[in-house]
Amino acid sequence: MQIKMTHILRNRAAWYLLKRKMSRYNCSSCIDVSSDVSIALRNHRPVVALESTIITHGMPYPQNLEVAQQVEETVRKEVNSILVDIWIVNKDYAYDVGMNFAILKEKIGKAFKGAVPATIAIIGGRIKVGLDPEILADFASLNVPAIKTSRRDFPYVLSKGLNGGTTVAGTIMVANTVGIKVFATGGLGGVHRGGETTMDISTDLMELGRNSIAVVSSGIKSILDIEKTLEYLETQGVCVVTYGKNKNFPSFYTSNSGLESPYNVETPTEAAILINKLFEFRMNSGVLLAVPIPEEDAMEGSEIEEAINEALKEAKNRGIKGKEVTPFILNKVMNLTDGKSLTSSILNNNVKYGFCSLKSRKNVFHVE
Ligand code: PSU
Ligand code: MN
Asked: Which residues contact ligand 1 via a Cβ below 6 A?
């Protein structure tokens, strides 16, 4: 009897361990990783995650689709991928980038062009990592509305089989689960003006604090409270770094918000080495790499910034309060300017800085 019991328990333990292992390697029962992304991750090749709230809630159809396609193309052709650690890079990778292993070794710290885009979204209650072109086109033109999906929204959207556009927070969660280390976006959520009383603080900031990931963004729009956002990022342990010659923290439409990042890096290699420390030291917290608006767009950017300031004044005069403020301002600014084309240009620019450190990407996931 005694032996039999032990036998059963041992079998159970083995079965449990196997199940755990399987679920790890199958990622999760709610995620489908596209074959492109899956193969790239398995071969330690650079992958850049992209969010989908910008598709579902950021722009109308068909501009949203055009921008999403364009950004994916930029990732495929123009991302600067940096090799920080050669030792795990395999021969397939050398073959892929068209050079032999010895030459590849020489190139450590130098940029390679191109990576695999992984647009992350929820379709019919399943999390998709990497969308095939037809699926992306379908998703962007959705007749069934998608829910803006941050961390708190996942259980509902998944259980009801709904569509979701993942926010920065939602995208970070998924990217981290499948082992993607770099994520490029436009603007990050932040602490809203008056956030000290309304408690309206984007969960993007918390998510950056609890995942080892590098988010490349053009900072925070000035409709938010940038100073408090930077304070809050410090509280969350996020390493904020401006890309460029100075520490000026950008505010999406302008290259200088009047506030400073704690640090700056001047080259892709510096950025890649910094990002790599997250994994070497197992920090379990993220890096925000703030890339200022490209110079050629800066003029238009400062005009939009003026429109924002005007709209903020008007909102105050009219007594508009609380959660009404942001929609009021965004609407007003969109009417006054052509903010959409600029957003697309900024987003594309950020993608180019999807630095990639290839070290310690251990996860292997199933192909859809
Ligand atoms: N900032 C922008 N445009 C956006 C967003 C932020 O300038 O579209 C989106 C991003 O997806 C971001 C989300 O993650 O809004 C933040 O929403 P909330 O403040 O509700 O957390
Ligand atoms: Mn909010």
From this structure: 51, 53-54, 58, 150, 167-169, 187, 189, 202-204, 221
pTM higher than the cut 0.90:
no
Q: How far is the CA of 289 from the centre of ligand 1 (A)?
A: 17
Pocket test residue of 52, 192, 204 for ligand 1, highest count of atoms within 8 A of CB: 204
Token representation of residue 328: 């009021």
For ligand 1, atom 17, which residue shows the shortest CA distance? 189
107 is catalytic: no
Of residues 72, 128, 207, 221, which has the active-site annotation?
Answer: 221
Task: Report pLDDT digits (tens) over 26-65.
Answer: 456 899 999 999 988 887 788 999 999 999 998 889 999 9
Low-confidence ranges of the chain (pLDDT < 70): 1-28, 84-101, 104-105, 107-109, 338-339, 353-368
**One-letter identity of residue 167:** T
Structural contact between residues 287 and 241, judged by C-beta atoms closer than 8 angstroms: yes
Q: Is the ipTM of this complex over 0.90?
A: yes
The 10s digit of each residue's pLDDT in 270-308 is 888 888 888 888 899 999 999 999 888 988 889 888 988
Using CA atoms of 90, 96, 98, 100 in order, give the dihedral in degrees to the nearest 10: 10
